């Protein structure tokens, strides 16, 4: 250090050093060296307390230490050591940052001086802080080794403050405790971009959920018509603007609904309103047609005798005393007048037309069945043909009762056996001697009849996926859905929607009316199961049997439509 020239010796005060963590070599041998910006000035021999005091701006120890920190620090401000500003060497050692009084700035300190300051100051720090857990008589290197700095152990070597390239400087306290280290790491991880991004996304999702909840509550307070059918005068294939929800049936892509059905059969949600909460607690629906819709439109049941038509005929004719247009007895129709009129058959009232055949539909059109207002309900399995009876001013209100297609075909065999003497007299003997298995391979089995009726394709024409989409779309938008396996609930759902429960009872079914409905449901099901079932082996009709599989193979489209209709039924029940 004296090579710099003749030292000047100004007066100086005690030099303070705040030593904290001195690094150690792994072998335990350490040597303090001056942290300086020039290695050439550190080659002189160890001296006593009095250092060279020659001022030199390049040898300012504060600048030297700061330079060491800025150029060699391996831990940045977001590290666990940030709070203590620990200086760490490239070799993994921790060093001291000496605080030099102002009157000593610009003065060179030799390494013996630094060693003595560091040793004395460290012992003072240990004595002052051992009650706080800092009881080690040495510094702990980052590699886990400990080098003593107690003056009594100077013979064993003291911590080494390596100079220049492998040095870093610390300016504050000693080791972090394990708990403090864990806390610092947690805070650092909590404020990491990934955690902050996750918390932000969770907050956004929560707010969106709250908004959707309020939106749903708001929709529930509106009338059914407000949010189900905003474009009521637009005859397009876009369909109803369904209520939001994961179970809401979406429009069927590729569906091409016939313009006649689109114009003349109303979307089922059009012109509806909510009934009182007292009336809807029975679970049979809270949606009903408005008075204007009831005065303008006519209920139309789409189905066959063995898929619910016969059952509803009895329920509506006997329990509710409604006037019906369906398949009346030919003997009764011969008594008709020249114009449209009412006739009685089996104690029930009918209009004198047969809407289950093409000829009868043409006659009903000529007589003005719909505009006459005589019929409270019309039945037909010929959807496209019967749609011609209606108009945009007097639309049909479609309702159906879905039945499993295989069970429906077995019921068809029993129905034909029970009525073949009148309907098919020429094949009476053939039907009476036919088993379920023989029937499944005969031409009596309907081939996807419901899908064909909805898309207007006759037997022999190939059904396509687009036909399936069209059939589903008609049910989705146009039909109130009931299930043959749930006749009572389905009937009450129809009655609520069409306001039939108010015709005779002032708003609710009386006990007498409900008992009538329940009794006739049992009668209808008994006829379906017993009539024409003589000499039939019911084991052949069980699910999984050969006959069952054969019929299922011929009714794949109807089965898919049946499954889709069940979903619509549940949706409408839950919505209404």
UniProtKB/TrEMBL annotation:
Residues 143-157 have a biased composition (Polar residues). Transmembrane segments: none annotated. It comes from the Eukaryota. Residues 33-45 have a biased composition (Low complexity). Gene3D superfamilies: P-loop containing nucleotide triphosphate hydrolases (3.40.50.300). Residues 28-61, 124-176 are annotated as: Disordered. Residues 46-59, 163-176 have a biased composition (Basic and acidic residues). This is Uncharacterized protein. It comes from Cyclotella cryptica.
